[in-house]
Amino acid sequence: MTPKIDIVIAGVQKAATTSLKNYIGEHPDVVTHSTPEFGYFSIDSEYQLPFNALLNKYKIEDFSQKKLLIKNVDIIFFEEHISRVKEHNPNAKIILVLRNPVSRAYSAYWFARRRGWENIETFEDAIAANPNRFSDKLHISNVSYLEKGNYVGQIETIHKYFNKQQVLILLQEDLKEDAAATMQHVFDFCELDNSFQPNLKIEYNVSAKARVQTLARLTVTDNAIKTGLKKIIPNTYLRKLRKTVTALNEKDFTPPPINEITKLKLISHFKPLNETLSLLLNRDLSHWNKI
Description:
The protein is α/β, with parallel strands linked by helices. It is 44% helix and 10% strand. The chain has helices spanning 17-25, 44-47, 79-88, 101-115, 123-128, 137-142, 151-159, 172-177, 179-189, 213-220, 224-232, 235-248, 260-281; strands spanning 7-11, 30-32, 67-71, 93-98, 167-171, 208-210, 250-252.
């Protein structure tokens, strides 16, 4: 019998989802992928494959006693991806982690620069640019800095497919302020033993910057070099090569503080969305609207 994915971290980008995935993945009754994202539902070419073909991402043979966990932050942003999860397992547990949309957008910009998805030199010009300047969903997703901050729209879409009891919505600050209690809550939601304590001291996905922007772009865009390599190198080894090149091309980096005028404009932009979200979640989010 083909196993089904039980737990899906569906978003949002740059909101400590990597940390959450690894914390849950430490649980002895959970198995998860070693790759940063599980692309089955968001990458059309992978979705055409039998699901079993993707199980090589899991280093286990017997799934019968384990809950399968995946993370892909693009699931929440595209309704088609959500519908694919529903079709795969209508009983899946969905977890979202939300972050102050201003800081999320700014962090996403620097992450896109790091990965080579973004070639606009300033954050201000990048948020003014149309995400549809790119043709593929991956690029559009990663440069949709303002659109991804509309959490209400994304939550309403996911509730079209999964009932509210199946969806757990956290804030990034929940993990920062009381990670132990938050993880107990997460384990309860996932129907796991909540007495297990993951290692919460490890910091995942720390900030970095590409040493050579051109090289970073070559690893993520379609080009003649990648096309040639695909003809002679199996996909498994090509992914490892890309991961190695990316790691060698990165250096530690702390982004400069966001421009105060830009920050004010974004606070004003997101304030009505935050107020609606506050009512939806029944949580005070007024601190997101402050300088």
